[in-house]
Amino acid sequence: MIRYLDHNDAFGGAEWGHPSDNIGALLSVADWLARSSAVAREQPATSSDSESSQQRGPINMDCLLTALIKAYEIQGGLQQLNSFNAVGLDHTILVKVASTAVVSWLMGLSETQALAAVSQAFQDGHPLRTFRQAPNTGPRKGWAAGDACMRAVQMALLTSKGQPGAPTVLTDPKWGFYRRLFQGKKFELRRPYSDRVVQEVGFKLVPAEGHGISAVEAALRIVQMLKAKGLNAENDVARLLIRTQGPAYTIINKTGPLKNAADRDHCLQYMIAVVLLKCAVIETVDYMDDSPWAFDPRVDRLRAKMEVVNDTVFTSDYYDGNKRSCSNAIQVFLDNGDAMDDVVVEYPIGHPDRAETFEHLQKKTRRNLELAFDDERVDKIFEAVGKDDLPVQDFVDLFVKTED
Fold this sequence. Notes:
The chain is an alpha+beta fold. It has a four-stranded mixed beta sheet with strand order 4-3-5-6. Strands 1-2 form a two-stranded antiparallel ribbon. It is built from 18 helices and six strands.
């Protein structure tokens, strides 16, 4: 269910993904271990492995957040220079690998056991990216990471019961992952593991595919520019030129019919058209089949007027480890022949380089929590995150609704 809290965060590179997907495995296992002290702190290792278990400490918020940092760093580190989509694999393979490694740490497995578990994750079957790309885009993209979390926990549990690993799962010259699934290439890391990914991750403060959020912001500016001229997108726009980065061009540049909500929320042209027509930011409900926008012919007419191009500068800046922008630009050409100014947004709201991101993130979190809890409970949840020694089960209990 964690993965269904969509529009959480995003981290880019040669591969794209959402490091918070790992919370599905980390929080559930930490809660289980914290509630089962015999398993977490007292039960002896079940393996004959003679190595001592990794020293993890009590299962409190400090431990949970440390686990989160580790998972972010593993997934994000592998994303930066290694393209799994280029070989047709979905990025949730990295959720499975990262969660397997960190769940092994939470469970106190030895280094040998942890390596065995991770090798199991790599030789496990991996999802194709078909469910994220037209014409097969579908709701599986919403639960694929949950499935990866489930597999990660299973790999760690099986290893804890004595399942051996595959030491050359990556490098075997005939059957290894590199040879069979990665075109003979080896993984590259831009830098040693630390805590950089969790500091550099972008938050999805607008309900849109992350590579399109800056386009949504650009479209909102276009709305104001049209209004200032006494014009509107429905009646006065002849053509729109949209410049974007390579990942957006690959993932969300779509023409033709959109079959379902999953298809619509991964369509750059749909996001922009809805914003221009409703004159407000797009919301989650606007992608749903029962949304008035889903089958509004005005949306498709606007989409047909859009030309999307892959801007090489935007793409280069996206992959630049020092810049990490996520740019989109929109230029509108009017029916009267005039060309409006090009609107460029380099860093979308939610990017760590936007000063207002953290404030908006807190507001988003509070707004969503208030859908289920009263102000007093929400305040307690906010306070709990800063209590390093708070047992994880006490944190999880704050999310249990009591009967009135």
